[in-house]
């Protein structure tokens, strides 16, 4: 193995990552599932080892060492790894050694250190990164699990972090990643974070931001999946479109979501505010009636029939498999 001072930044095999990732993954793929020694020490919060690695490095190669790029879909830079896990002392040391605070993450998440820290809800690390020049609104997120800092905070219900970001100018309606992204409000709704949703609405969040094309959902659809009546009421009061279409894969309206998941009270509430009982969803034109029947919710089927639902109960499939 190369020394820690090598400008080529030695990489450790998956077996050294103490089961950080799925142990069934093919460990022979050293490009995809390997971390540098510094990245691993930073991830583990091993301040003593991080200090030793940096102290023994050739000054001419310190930048390459500290800023070694993430490997593969799930990799992280040393700073990202420490930031995600709240290792504030390691974060401070890496920043003092020249870590790039705005470096992009691995291909799948593509998150910066700030985006990781906001997702973790770690205010001290968030403050440290912002003080070091972290961009609150970095360039558009393009990858599958990409999130802006605000979206990441909202997704986990970290209201204090979200409020800080908004005060610093975070775009409340920043577009989501194109495949499976969510707006900040959609993220809060999917996580059933009522306080975060109220905060975002108070700061101008678009209540009817469309569902991301492939695997997205509106805020109201997400709340209906979970049967969160309090959140649904807040969203309806803010003007949520009860008949907004879903995405290609999630594919239904809010009524489809409530019917599929057997939330009888919400089904009645949505019908009362104008939900289309015969709305077709997806390429098959599946109705809420079929959604309820496919999930075995007989009582919902009866309520929909009484409300004027037409057509067969068979042939339905399950929509709205939220992550």
From TrEMBL:
<feature type="repeat" description="ANK">
    <location>
        <begin position="284"/>
        <end position="309"/>
    </location>
</feature>
<dbReference type="InterPro" id="IPR036770">
    <property type="entry name" value="Ankyrin_rpt-contain_sf"/>
</dbReference>
<dbReference type="GO" id="GO:0085020">
    <property type="term" value="P:protein K6-linked ubiquitination"/>
</dbReference>
<feature type="region of interest" description="Disordered">
    <location>
        <begin position="1"/>
        <end position="24"/>
    </location>
</feature>
<dbReference type="GO" id="GO:0004842">
    <property type="term" value="F:ubiquitin-protein transferase activity"/>
</dbReference>
<feature type="repeat" description="ANK">
    <location>
        <begin position="180"/>
        <end position="212"/>
    </location>
</feature>
<dbReference type="Pfam" id="PF00023">
    <property type="entry name" value="Ank"/>
</dbReference>
<feature type="repeat" description="ANK">
    <location>
        <begin position="250"/>
        <end position="282"/>
    </location>
</feature>
<dbReference type="InterPro" id="IPR002110">
    <property type="entry name" value="Ankyrin_rpt"/>
</dbReference>
<feature type="repeat" description="ANK">
    <location>
        <begin position="215"/>
        <end position="247"/>
    </location>
</feature>
<feature type="compositionally biased region" description="Low complexity">
    <location>
        <begin position="1"/>
        <end position="15"/>
    </location>
</feature>
<feature type="repeat" description="ANK">
    <location>
        <begin position="74"/>
        <end position="106"/>
    </location>
</feature>
<feature type="repeat" description="ANK">
    <location>
        <begin position="145"/>
        <end position="177"/>
    </location>
</feature>
<dbReference type="Pfam" id="PF12796">
    <property type="entry name" value="Ank_2"/>
</dbReference>
<keyword id="KW-0040">ANK repeat</keyword>
<feature type="repeat" description="ANK">
    <location>
        <begin position="109"/>
        <end position="137"/>
    </location>
</feature>
<protein>
    <submittedName>
        <fullName>Ankyrin repeat-containing protein</fullName>
    </submittedName>
</protein>
<keyword id="KW-0677">Repeat</keyword>
């Amino acid at each position: 193995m190369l020394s820690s001072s090598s400008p080529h930044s030695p990489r450790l095999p998956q077996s050294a990552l103490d089961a950080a990732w799925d142990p069934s993954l093919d460990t022979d793929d050293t490009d995809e599932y390997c971390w540098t020694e510094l990245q691993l020490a930073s991830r583990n919060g091993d301040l003593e080892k991080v200090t030793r690695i940096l102290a023994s490095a050739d000054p001419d190669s310190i930048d390459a060492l500290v800023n070694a790029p993430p490997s593969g879909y799930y990799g992280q830079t040393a700073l990202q790894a420490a930031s995600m896990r709240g290792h504030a002392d390691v974060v401070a040391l890496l920043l003092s050694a020249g870590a790039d605070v705005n470096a992009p993450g691995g291909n799948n998440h593509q998150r910066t250190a700030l985006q990781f820290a906001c997702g973790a809800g770690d205010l001290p690390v968030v403050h440290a990164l912002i003080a070091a020049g972290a961009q609150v609104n970095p360039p558009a997120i393009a990858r599958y699990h990409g999130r802006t800092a605000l979206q990441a905070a909202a997704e986990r219900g970290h209201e204090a972090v979200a409020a800080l970001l908004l005060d610093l100018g975070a775009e409340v309606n920043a577009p989501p990643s194109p495949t499976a992204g969510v707006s900040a409000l959609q993220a809060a709704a999917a996580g059933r974070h009522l306080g975060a949703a109220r905060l975002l609405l108070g700061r101008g969040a678009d209540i009817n931001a469309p569902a991301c094309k492939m695997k997205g959902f509106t805020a109201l659809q997400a709340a209906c999946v979970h049967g969160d009546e309090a959140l649904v009421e807040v969203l309806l009061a803010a003007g949520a479109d009860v008949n907004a279409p879903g995405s290609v894969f999630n594919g239904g309206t809010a009524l489809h979501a409530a019917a599929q998941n057997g939330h009888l009270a919400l089904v009645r509430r949505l019908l009362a505010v104008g939900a289309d009982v015969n709305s077709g969803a997806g390429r098959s034109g599946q109705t809420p009636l079929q959604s309820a029947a496919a999930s075995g919710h007989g009582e919902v089927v009866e309520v929909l029939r009484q409300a004027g639902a037409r057509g067969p109960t068979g042939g339905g499939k399950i929509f709205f498999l939220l992550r």
